[in-house]
């Protein structure tokens, strides 16, 4: 029935009372200002709400292809000036009025230590605030994952591109971030080299697996013409999944396997695959604020090159997590050449099939492979090894030494693992400005050197990491 206005029997629903009052008002000859004032007091009738919603929706849907506007509510005062704000689609809305850049500038606490916080000056924000890409992505969408500071501190970057156009439209913001993070100037060109035969060394780093427990290489890829996950609609996300399924279905030989949509996956299976690092995690606070978790788990899935979940795949494709695709090869031991070779075969096979369907991976002469997070521009590659360095890791300066060699160090369970178990996830620190072959060679040389130092410590030798630091 709806809510009732007034007391006692015979009171009519509030909607009927408003309509009755509005009917009386329409019969009156009154100034516009009076009509607007009464409208604010008694609320909009259904006709007014539908009309305003239609106007806003029409404006919104024209901003981006394939974006459907939500129903908007608005209260209009004298002369059409908005008294409260109306919204269409989140991405493509044209506001009835805009706050000034000074009023809209984000709040930053002492915990906001991201590169976004450093480079989003009031001047830059004022310049970029009115702009939006053809997919409707704004600077506020770009920085969403870095402005929220809840249970977890924002990640080091604090921003996410919504599409290819974001990097050019918001260049006054992105360019200095890319320059600082990658040490890569706006005029530089990135080199791509996915030929394993160009490696100088192809030996297994640790044939007996005494130190290198496992090796994993993954690359991030976007599909040209489609918005990145942070700006994706349901339809665009499903298009990515459709392309991924059709491409993986054509894989043959040791790459052949099965695609598993998260929609069809039991919770127990999903948890098991996450624990085994075969599947990505479900959304957390960061991915939700970055808008990567919308409509979860629709159009997300995992491809593995085996037919039985009890087996351990060594070729895996993640669909619609942080990127359109994350393609990876992983196996026990330290044979990084074999891992790289298989990964390249899989990536090339998928791209060939994608081109046959009129699509291709998004690549740029300046930024290399272009994806949503600026940290992954260039190669989009993270080559990592789980390495046991129990004695070496206890010495002061261990992390600094690794960083000096171009290596990043995490706990064995990944980015959020801060425990010192003696087993570390060591990976290439750089992505942009170095080719894939160069970064893998750096991994081979760097991890080999760390193993040599660990062996010396095990033999009872003393090592001064400050001196070693000056050698590299």
TrEMBL record:
ATP binds at residues 214-218, 277, 326, 382-386, 410-415. Residues 211-457 form the Phosphagen kinase C-terminal domain. The keyword Transferase applies. InterPro entries: ATP-guanido_PTrfase (IPR000749), ATP-guanido_PTrfase_AS (IPR022415), ATP-guanido_PTrfase_cat (IPR022414), ATP-guanido_PTrfase_N (IPR022413), ATP-guanido_PTrfase_N_sf (IPR036802), Gln_synth/guanido_kin_cat_dom (IPR014746). The keyword Ligase does not apply. Coiled coil: none annotated. Keywords: ATP-binding, Kinase, Nucleotide-binding, Transferase. CDD domains: eukaryotic_phosphagen_kinases. GO terms for molecular function: ATP binding; creatine kinase activity. GO terms for cellular component: extracellular space. Gene3D superfamilies: ATP:guanido phosphotransferase, N-terminal domain, Glutamine synthetase/guanido kinase, catalytic domain. It holds the Pfam family ATP-gua_Ptrans. Belongs to the ATP:guanido phosphotransferase family. PANTHER family: ARGININE KINASE 1-RELATED (PTHR11547:SF38), ARGININE OR CREATINE KINASE (PTHR11547). This is Creatine kinase.
């Amino acid at each position: 029935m709806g809510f009732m206005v007034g007391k006692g029997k015979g009171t009519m629903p509030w909607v009927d009372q408003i309509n009755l009052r509005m009917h009386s008002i329409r019969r009156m000859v009154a100034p516009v200002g009076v009509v607007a004032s009464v409208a604010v007091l008694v609320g909009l009738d259904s006709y007014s709400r539908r009309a305003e919603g239609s106007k806003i929706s029409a404006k919104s849907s024209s901003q981006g292809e394939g974006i459907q506007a939500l129903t908007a509510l608005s209260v209009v005062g004298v002369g059409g000036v908005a008294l409260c704000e109306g919204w269409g689609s989140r991405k493509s809305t044209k506001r009835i009025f805009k706050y000034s850049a000074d009023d809209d500038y984000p709040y930053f606490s002492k915990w906001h230590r991201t590169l976004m916080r450093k480079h989003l000056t009031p001047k830059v924000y004022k310049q970029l605030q009115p702009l939006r890409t053809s997919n409707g992505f704004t600077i506020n969408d770009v920085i969403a994952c870095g402005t929220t500071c809840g249970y977890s501190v924002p990640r080091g970057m604090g921003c996410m591109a919504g599409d290819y156009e974001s990097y050019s439209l918001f260049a006054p913001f992105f360019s200095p971030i890319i320059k600082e993070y990658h040490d890569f100037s706006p005029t530089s060109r990135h080199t791509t080299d996915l030929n394993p035969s160009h490696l100088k060394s192809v030996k297994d780093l640790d044939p007996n697996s005494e130190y290198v427990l496992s090796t994993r290489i993954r690359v991030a890829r976007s599909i040209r013409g489609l918005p990145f996950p942070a700006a994706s609609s349901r339809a665009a996300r499903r298009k990515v999944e459709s392309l991924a399924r059709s491409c993986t279905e054509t894989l043959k030989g040791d790459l052949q396997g099965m695609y598993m949509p998260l929609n069809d996956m039991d919770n127990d299976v999903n948890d098991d695959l996450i624990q085994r690092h075969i599947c990505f995690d479900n959304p957390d606070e960061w991915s939700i604020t970055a808008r990567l978790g919308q409509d979860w788990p629709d159009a997300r899935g995992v491809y593995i090159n085996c037919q039985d979940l009890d087996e351990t795949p060594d070729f895996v494709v993640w669909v619609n997590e942080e990127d359109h695709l994350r393609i990876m090869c992983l196996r026990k031991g330290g044979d990084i050449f074999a891992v790289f070779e298989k990964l390249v075969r899989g990536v090339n096979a998928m791209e060939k099939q994608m081109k046959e369907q009129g699509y291709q991976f998004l690549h740029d002469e300046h930024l290399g492979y272009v994806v949503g997070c600026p940290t992954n521009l260039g190669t989009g590659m993270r080559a990592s090894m789980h390495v046991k360095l129990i004695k070496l890791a206890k010495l002061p300066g261990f992390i600094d030494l690794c960083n000096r060699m171009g290596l990043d160090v995490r706990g064995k369970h990944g980015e959020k693992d801060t425990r010192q178990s003696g087993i570390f996830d060591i990976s290439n620190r750089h992505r942009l400005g170095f080719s894939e072959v160069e970064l893998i060679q750096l991994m081979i040389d760097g991890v080999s050197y760390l193993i040599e130092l660990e062996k010396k410590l095990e033999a009872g030798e003393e090592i001064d990491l400050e001196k070693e630091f000056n050698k590299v």
